Amino acid sequence: VVDPGYWATFTPLNVDPLLTRQTTGGMAGALRATATPTRWLTLEASIAHSRTNASEVPDVDTTRSVPLYEDDVALTVQGHAGHSTVTQGRTTVALDGTANTGRHTIILGGEYEDAHVTAQNGGVVFLRDDSTVWERREERSAGGTFHNRAPTVYLQDAWRIVDRLTVNAGVRWSAQILTGASGETAQTFAGEWQPRLGINWRLDRVGKRRLFASYGRFYQQIPLNLSRLWYVDYYAVYSYYSNDPRLAILAPDSVYDGSSYESEWAKQVPNISVENFDEVTLGYEALLGSTRLTLRGIRRSLRSSFQWGIAPGTSQFWILGTPGKGDFAFLPPPKRTYTALEVSLSGARRGLRYQASYVLSRTWGNYSGLFASDLGIADPGGNFTFFTPEQAANSEGLLPNDRPHVLKLVAALSTSFGMTPGVFFSYMSGTPINEFGTATFGWSFVSRRGTSGRTPAIWDLGVRLTYDTPTHRPHTRVLVDVQHLGNPRQTVRVDQLHYFKQDPNGNPNPNPNYLLPIAYQPPMTARLGVELNF
């Protein structure tokens, strides 16, 4: 696989940094059983298991290759990075019962989920930080198997108070129990109470018009990335030199040992919770002939998060917890608010099925979420623009996935001779652009978040043509897909790093690639397929 990834803005001096050998595989299975012991009671039980394996190693001749060398002054990169092997899986057992007593439909159930991952990684990297400082980083995880075990119990009642008014009320309780590489419990998140309330009010007898509203609290299941990083013995030594250490055996000018051990971090951190949010909706729906019109307002507000950070100059240095609390008070509490008005139309007429929607929205805050979309990387629990004290300044504003206007249209026409043409069209506003400089770790905001412009608006058009042949055994369907029709290839990401580290005289070191494109829409593609149904 050739993938520039982090080095998209660097010039490779050989192919090694871009070329990796990736192997993947997996399996999944599920079993469900349903029983109806009485007319008013239904019981369901299920069990599911999935497992995947993945490894990523340099796809080079290791007898001639050298460790990765990243030159932050010349913006070049060469050599190969380390290795990574991961086996992950998920096992879920669930049981619930539904009782229908006329005006009440009551559901009581429970689940137990075990998400687990076995991982090991490591390698050596050389960096040129500036014209007089070189760095050698050696990081290596001892590896192990990590678990997030999540028991859940829930109760829900759909109460038809009168024929036109139904109230849905419920509550969900869950916990998350993280284990470290040793198998011992490292952190428990208990008492995840999640109340839910919904109201559905029919405004006429035949149900052509209705009002609806809902409130809910939702907890995210924390990925195991944090466990792999902290609840394990992790060797990390950083050596600094005034000359290039690759050219000769040199004694380092200084050494920083950033190694951490499971026993240091596998302890209960008080007054924390995983990422969770409240959601409130209010809507109106009406049937206008054969078209259904839906208006909905929504507001989703983040309540808390759980991550790690760095507090330079303190005895703690590494921090694991919730920003704004305790040792993590050097950052403000995490904020992410999504507010939107949605308008949608859907229906069917004379073989034509259609659905259209428009969303006017705003996404605001200082925390982009488990996916660090500021930098376009998935590193749950380590948000590299919400990490160190200097990143608090200018950090609140438009978040990376803020697209004020989103328009979508889907339509398909069924014909009497087996041909069904379809079309998909979307239009989206561009996303906010930041002006970044370097921080102690990660990037800092030179100006207020999201105020340095936007990427261009994008549109996308795709068509599908299906033909059902007259044959019956096997039934045959031919499909033709054309995606990204017109090949718009618009810019979707730009380089947002304006300044590198200061030079030895303390002067700004601008990035010549600032605001240049680093990612585009996919090119136009066509696909031909055949489905056989026996």
Summarize the structure.
The protein is 2% helix and 59% strand. The protein has 534 residues and is mainly beta.
Spell out the blueprint of helices and strands.
Blueprint: E1 11-12, E2 20-38, E3 41-58, E4 68-71, E5 76-78, E6 83-100, E7 104-130, E8 133-141, E9 144-162, E10 165-179, E11 185-202, E12 209-219, H1 225-230, E13 234-241, E14 254-257, H2 262-265, E15 276-288, E16 291-304, E17 307-311, E18 317-321, E19 336-349, E20 352-365, E21 371-372, E22 377-378, E23 397-398, E24 405-413, E25 419-428, E26 436-438, E27 443-445, E28 458-468, E29 475-483, E30 491-494, E31 497-500, E32 509-510, E33 517-520, E34 525-533
Parallel strand pairs: 1-5, 4-7, 26-31
Antiparallel strand pairs: 2-3, 3-6, 4-5, 6-7, 7-8, 7-9, 8-13, 9-10, 10-11, 11-12, 12-15, 13-14, 15-16, 16-19, 17-18, 19-20, 20-23, 20-24, 21-22, 24-25, 25-28, 26-27, 28-29, 29-34, 30-33, 31-32
**Rough shape?**
globular
**Radius of gyration, CA atoms, in whole angstroms:** 27 Å
Structural class: mainly beta
The largest pleated sheet is described as: 24 strands, mixed
* Portion in strands: over 45%
